[in-house]
């Protein structure tokens, strides 16, 4: 079953976060991830506002998990730490 990686982000350091995004793109795509949402217009209906929203589809929950824990993604993540307030979740899609 495919899975979605959903991130809600409030960037606090655009330069560092931009480097994260460059490196993370390769890691995500390298693990079979396909971006469905990457920024763009949004409407906050409930909860805390995070103006950057990202959704990527992976072939499976395991593929998304493997991506997050991969050396490539962990390297990218070093640039996101301290450069954004983020929440990230991976969830299986409904079949």
From TrEMBL:
Superkingdom of origin: Bacteria
Leader sequence segment: none
Annotated DUF1330 domain residues: 2-94
PANTHER family assigned: BLR0684 PROTEIN, PTHR41521
Name of the protein described by the UniProt record: DUF1330 domain-containing protein
């Amino acid at each position: 079953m495919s899975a979605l990686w959903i991130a809600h982000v409030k960037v606090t350091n655009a330069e560092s976060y931009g480097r994260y995004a460059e490196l993370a793109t390769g890691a995500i795509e390298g693990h079979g991830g396909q971006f469905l949402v990457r920024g763009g217009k949004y409407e906050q209906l409930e909860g805390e506002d995070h103006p950057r929203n990202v959704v990527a589809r992976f072939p499976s929950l395991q593929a998304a998990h493997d991506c997050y824990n991969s050396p490539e993604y962990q390297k990218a993540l070093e640039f996101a730490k301290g450069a954004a307030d983020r929440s990230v979740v991976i969830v299986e899609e409904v079949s």
